[in-house]
Write a structure and sequence with these properties.
globular; Quino_amine_DH_bsu; WD40/YVTN_repeat-like_dom_sf
Length: about 300
């Protein structure tokens, strides 16, 4: 049985439909033929691939190579939209860095395309942007969130650390535009935070909205098939969380899911740590529920995302 069938056998949920695309090949809403953005830790690059083509260098739509050092072991990537720069890439690396880079100017980007970076410490695993405010929040697995705020929203060089918030095992962060909340996953918890203030006075505050997990929370993503839901993986499975009622539904009981995305078409894809290779937390394969799996020889994928600027 193919690995996608392990998840398919216990999948719960019904798809909706959407279509459309904007700017530099970045999708505004998903279709059956879409692009994915992945972190590959052996070459330490972020790649963008068409999911219907092999994940080879020749087929890469975009690639970003920040080098090693603080950028080693890229652990997160996502795309967001800005008024000043258009679409930008967001990244976190277990080597210590988080930052944003200009994805629009060429096919192959490098360290000189970085628009801003910081070193929050504590094994960074995710970075998110709060729209309209121009603030960024990093999650570090050693147990905290770090808030960076600007003095000028259109100028990332003005970003500075303004707050550190304790969250044991912090791994994921995602902005919820419908409820104006920042959600974060940590050790046995998904916690929502309110955001107040502007510029350097921006602050997070833990809200009453939180959901208990069975294990360490890993990936945290919107559900592109339902704006009322979040998707989270922990050590033991993948779950859907209703952002209003906080009801948690088990979607899959497969362990070690490091990245999980569900499209409005109903298709989902994921990366599962395979306990093998140079990085046993990664895998050379991105698994698709309704398309061919994509394996890159010698690779260690950690995160796979839908290549879109949309928050949900």
């Amino acid at each position: 049985m193919k690995r996608r069938n392990i998840l398919r056998a216990v999948a719960i949920g019904a798809p909706l439909a959407a279509a459309g695309a904007i700017g530099v090949g970045v999708a505004a809403a998903d279709t059956a033929n879409f692009k994915v953005i992945v972190t590959e830790q052996v070459s330490n690059k972020v790649f963008v691939f068409d999911k219907d083509k092999s994940f080879s260098n020749a087929n890469a739509y975009k690639m970003w190579s920040p080098g090693t050092g603080g950028w080693a072991n890229l652990s997160d990537c996502r795309i967001r939209d800005t008024a000043q720069f258009g679409a930008i890439g967001l990244a976190a690396a277990s080597g210590g860095k988080v930052g944003i880079w200009n994805i629009t100017d060429e096919r192959e980007q490098e360290l000189n395309d970085v628009l801003w970076s910081a070193t929050p410490g504590g094994n960074p695993h995710a970075l998110e942007r709060i729209p309209d405010l121009g603030a960024f929040v990093a999650a570090s697995s050693d147990g905290f969130l770090t808030v960076y705020a600007p003095t000028k929203i259109s100028d990332p060089s003005t970003l500075a650390k303004v707050q550190t918030v304790s969250l044991a095992g912090a791994h994921g962060v995602v902005w919820d535009p419908n409820n104006k909340l920042l959600w974060a996953s940590g050790n046995k918890i998904v916690q929502a935070y309110t955001v107040s203030g502007t510029y350097r006075d921006i602050r997070l505050k833990a809200s009453s909205k939180k959901v208990t997990l069975s294990g360490l929370g890993h990936d945290l993503q919107p559900d592109f098939s339902n704006k009322a839901k979040l998707l989270v993986s922990d050590s033991y499975g993948v779950y859907s969380i209703d952002k209003g009622t906080l009801a948690k539904t088990t979607l899959h009981t497969t362990t070690r899911i490091k990245a999980y995305v569900k499209m409005s078409t109903g298709e989902y894809f994921y990366v599962r740590g395979d306990n093998a290779g140079s990085r046993d937390w990664g895998s050379p394969t991105v698994v698709f529920s309704e398309s061919a799996d994509r394996t890159r020889d010698g690779a260690e994928f950690y995160k796979a995302r839908y290549y879109t600027t949309a928050y949900n």
